[in-house]
Specification:
By secondary structure, this protein is α+β, with helices and mostly antiparallel strands. It has one domain (about 10-160): 2-Layer Sandwich (Beta-Lactamase), CATH 3.30.450.150. The protein contains 6 helices and 4 strands; from the N terminus they run H-H-E-E-H-H-H-E-E-H. It has helices at about 15-25, 30-50, 75-90, 95-105, 110, 145-160; strands at about 55-60, 60-70, 125-130, 135-140. A 4-stranded antiparallel beta sheet has the order 2-1-4-3. The radius of gyration is 15 Å and the shape is globular. It starts with 14 loop residues before the first helix and ends in an 8-residue tail after the last helix.
Length: about 170
Amino acid sequence: MNATPRETPELTPPLSELEAQERRLVFRTFTADDAWALGSLLVEMARERQAPVAVDIHRAGQQLFHAALPGATADNDAWIARKRRVVERYGSASYLVGARCRAKGTTFEESSRLDPDRYAAHGGSFPITVADVGVIGAVTVSGLPQLDDHRFVVAALERFLGEGDPSAE
């Protein structure tokens, strides 16, 4: 596994900002075609930035999209699985789950008591939420520092859903 991503408290966005992202970035529906389009957008954005990432989209336990760009490794796939499990278990972005723990003066590993080889509350996995349904899956990126992974997924969701500034990083 890669070393644990480091995070400095001054860079962590406020919990209110992270929670607002989840309330705002909601789909009306989410189909296999949507997964393909969103995954393709993430790949396009990664290529523009020459980002060495792996991209993954799961819905209801089924992998609908996966791509590894130059520089991504099998370790990124392992991080994807660990971060996605956090979203599936908590129904919130992996970065937000970790930030909530840090805000309480603890770590996810200490407070959750979950196996760190199976769960990682590090940035990069974001819930796929459908209005009037709830969380049905996760879109995950791995390969950048954890806050950058989180921001990358949020930027893609904003662009895909027509929210915010499409040129935002």
